[in-house]
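Milestone 3.1: sequence recovery, worked example.
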């Protein structure tokens, strides 16, 4: 792909701190083109590009199509980000507004976390529910794909990552992110686990059926909210529990 000659910008989609995002055309394909906005943020932009090349997977991430210097081209998702799902499911996707479909979004979200955690990566851009949801795009089959990978540091339980400069602000911060000094505000993949209940409960909505189903998730969600990071389950364990709970619900247990 020769981006300068083959890709034609159609419209501005979003203005961001690190990059501006445009709707574009490449041959017969509608794509998304991202340009670096500030040369001082080039390390963040290049980290995003590197993560797409390193972690790109058709089932979990948006499809990376090409890059040139500080420009990146990726596939376009016409359904937008997960932040718009409540509106979509109550309007143009009303026929898919079922508990099964909504809980499938929880499964898709945790499956992506499991994939990222298997590579020892933690999602730093997740201080608020809206910010977290905006990191994921909605695939035509109504599963999710992670999009923004510019804040995805390497982290393990022994080698934790700093997600921004403390004190951090946001309603979705894990307890270990509330320190006032850099060495007091470090994350492992357990930070992502803390946020799973908030994201899943939002996906489920507030119908009577959803409220009844949420009761069955209480135990696993309580484990995700344990204050000691090493006591929280892994994403794989959450996924296994989610699968078990759904099977029991479907059988009327």
């Amino acid at each position: 792909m020769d981006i300068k000659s083959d890709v034609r910008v159609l419209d501005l989609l979003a203005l961001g701190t690190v990059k501006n995002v445009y709707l574009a055309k490449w041959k017969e394909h509608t794509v998304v083109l991202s340009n670096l906005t500030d040369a001082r943020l080039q390390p963040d932009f290049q980290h995003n590009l590197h993560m797409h090349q390193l972690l790109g997977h058709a089932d979990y991430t948006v499809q990376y199509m090409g890059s040139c210097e500080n420009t990146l081209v990726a596939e376009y998702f016409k359904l937008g980000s997960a932040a718009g799902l409540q509106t979509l499911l109550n309007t143009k996707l009303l026929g898919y507004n079922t508990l099964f479909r909504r809980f499938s979004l929880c499964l898709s979200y945790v499956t992506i976390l499991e994939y990222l955690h298997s590579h020892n990566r933690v999602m730093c851009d997740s201080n608020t529910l809206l910010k977290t949801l905006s990191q994921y795009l909605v695939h035509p089959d109504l599963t999710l794909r992670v999009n923004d990978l510019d804040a995805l540091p390497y982290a393990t339980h022994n080698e934790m990552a700093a997600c921004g400069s403390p004190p951090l602000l946001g309603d979705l911060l894990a307890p270990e992110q509330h320190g006032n000094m850099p060495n007091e505000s470090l994350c492992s993949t357990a930070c992502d686990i803390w946020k799973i209940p908030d994201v899943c409960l939002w996906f489920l909505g507030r119908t009577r059926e959803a409220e009844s189903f949420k009761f069955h998730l209480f135990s696993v969600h309580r484990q995700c909210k344990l204050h000691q990071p090493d006591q929280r389950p892994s994403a794989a364990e959450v996924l296994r529990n989610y699968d078990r709970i759904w099977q029991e619900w479907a059988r009327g247990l």
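The mean pLDDT is 94. The CA atoms of residues 32 and 132 lie 20 Å apart.
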